[in-house]
Amino acid sequence: MVERVRVTEAAEAVIRQLEAAHGNLVFHQSGGCCDGSAPMCYPRNEFRVGAQDVFLGTIAGVPMFMGAAQFEYWAHTQLIIDVVPGRGGGFSLEAPLGVRFLTRSRVFTDAEAEELSLEGPPKRGDEVTE
């Protein structure tokens, strides 16, 4: 099974730290302002996903969504969520730790793209019950 989204070990360590402090989490990446092209991490009960959010999968057991318009640009790539030193301009939970999540990517191989095509489109936020 081809994963649309993965996480680095460093980012997973930060996710575990955030879970310990905030409980269940959710990631979302939109195309809006305030670092909107960066992955944002929120407490799961404080962020609502909707029909325009595409479910990419889970990273470290945390669901990740992307705005549908943004997904159109990224659909041909596997996203790799990483963490780097510095502060982003958004409201993501990791900001007080002096780090920020970052999306890296790689283009799917032809075989991976074919497999994803056979699976059909990813679920939308209103179809996911996590």
Structure write-up:
The protein is an alpha/beta fold. The chain has a single domain, classed as Hypothetical Protein Aq_1857, Chain: A (Sandwich), CATH 2.60.300.12. The chain is 24% helix and 33% strand. It has three helices and seven strands; from the N terminus they run βαββββαββα. The relative contact order is 0.25. The mean pLDDT is 92.
Cα separation of the termini:
19 Å
Q: Specify the helix fraction band.
A: 10-25%
**Remind me, CATH topology?**
Hypothetical Protein Aq_1857, Chain: A
Q: Number of DSSP helices?
A: 3
CATH superfamily: HesB-like domain
- Domain module tally: 1
- The percentage of residues in β strands lies in 25-35%
Task: Identify the overall geometry.
Answer: globular
Structure class: alpha/beta
Biggest sheet: strands, sense, closure?
4 strands, mixed
CATH class: Mainly Beta
Element-level helix/strand string:
EHEEEEHEEH
What's a concise summary of this model?
Helix content is 24%, strand content 33%.
SSE arrangement:
Layout: E1 5-7, H1 9-22, E2 25-29, E3 40-43, E4 53-59, E5 62-67, H2 68-74, E6 77-85, E7 99-107, H3 110-119
Parallel strand pairs: 1-6, 2-5
Antiparallel strand pairs: 2-3, 4-5, 6-7
Features:
130 residues, alpha/beta, Hypothetical Protein Aq_1857, Chain: A, 4-stranded mixed sheet, 3-stranded mixed sheet, 7 strands, 24% helix, globular
